[in-house]
């Protein structure tokens, strides 16, 4: 399986997937940490992919998603964005709605 297929498989494996530096328990950058905190604050059940452990995904995902930085949050197969967008959605109450819709689906 090539790296693009592995990325797609990860995105398709769960309704909410976060490609991040580190893990939710041990984030390796502040942006990843803040994104995890926002997801946890709204009670999201999410899968994570540690891009530091997989250099191929780290190199390829920005080209696939057209998003240059990490973390990258996907909900229902769609790129939501990175840390800033996730925190903005959280502050507006929209992240809670997106997560609630996933929980109902």
Automatic annotation (TrEMBL):
PANTHER family: GLUTAREDOXIN FAMILY MEMBER, MONOTHIOL GLUTAREDOXIN-S14, CHLOROPLASTIC
GO terms, molecular function: 2 iron, 2 sulfur cluster binding; disulfide oxidoreductase activity; metal ion binding
Record's keyword terms, sorted: 2Fe-2S, Iron, Iron-sulfur, Metal-binding, Redox-active center
Residues binding [2Fe-2S] cluster: 29
Similarity comment: Belongs to the glutaredoxin family. Monothiol subfamily.
Binding site for glutathione: 21, 58, 70, 83-84
Keyword hit for Lyase: no
Protein name: Glutaredoxin
The keyword Transport is annotated on this UniProt entry: no
Annotated Glutaredoxin domain residues: 16-80
InterPro entries assigned to the protein according to its UniProt record, in alphabetical order: Glutaredoxin (IPR002109), GRX_PICOT-like (IPR033658), Monothiol_GRX (IPR014434), Monothiol_GRX-rel (IPR004480), Thioredoxin-like_sf (IPR036249)
């Amino acid at each position: 399986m090539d790296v693009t297929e592995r990325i797609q498989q990860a995105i398709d494996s769960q309704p909410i997937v976060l490609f991040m530096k580190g893990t939710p328990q041990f984030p390796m950058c502040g942006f990843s940490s803040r994104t995890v905190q926002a997801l946890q604050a709204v009670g999201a059940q999410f899968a994570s992919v540690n891009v530091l452990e997989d250099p191929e995904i780290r190199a390829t995902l920005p080209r696939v998603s057209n998003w240059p930085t990490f973390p990258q949050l996907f909900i229902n197969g769609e790129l939501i964005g990175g840390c800033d967008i996730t925190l903005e959605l959280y502050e507006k109450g929209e992240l809670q709605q997106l997560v609630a819709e996933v929980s109902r689906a």
